[in-house]
Amino acid sequence: MAPRPEGPSTDTYARAAGILYLIIIVCALFSEVVVRSGLVIPGDAAATASNISRSEFLFRFGLVSDVVAFLSDVVVAVLLYVLLRPVNRVFSLAAAGFRLTGTAIYGVNLLNHLAPLLLLGGSDYLGVFDPGQVEALALFFLELHGNGYDLGLVFFGFHCLAVGYLLYKSGFFPMILGVLMVLAGAAYLIGSGTLFLFPDRADAVAFVYVAPLIGELAFGLWLVIRGVRAPL
To answer: How far from chain centre, in Å, is Cα 77?
Structure first.
């Protein structure tokens, strides 16, 4: 059993991490489900371009929402390292490293979200392309963004596996949270691995993303409501 992390601000750190974790979930779901899934029509460049042009502010707000999520990710990585290092310092550091690496990939990948706005903005230098080519390029960058996001999720999946192990071994978090986070990490690795190795079957394993939603939401709510409890 690991010693409970000490210090008068331990619960404050835990609840701050929980609040930020919930912010990450809300912002990420908004950007992906409401914005990109709502505006991007797979295989239809013209319809996608039309949707983005008509809802430009929403598309830009989706980018800002992602920025908020990724900034929060950095802070959560640090806070979870502080909370979980009494369990195993090396695993805690590795978990933070995996999360920060994934966040760095997400951040750079936002350029692919921004690219369609630049392409569809009507700049004079884009006159060398016909409208159909510009629309096709816009959809290409959005598809590239999707693949870039999944690349980041590979690193985030390993983060969840490490955090799950630490939660399970800690003694000051319920073991079930550790199990749920391990399942979340496995789901991310299955989803991204399938996309990269067998892209035609990616939709068939989309159901696995229910596990991260349950696991991460449960972990975030526990941190907010209970903080870090006394050892079991």
So the answer is: 12
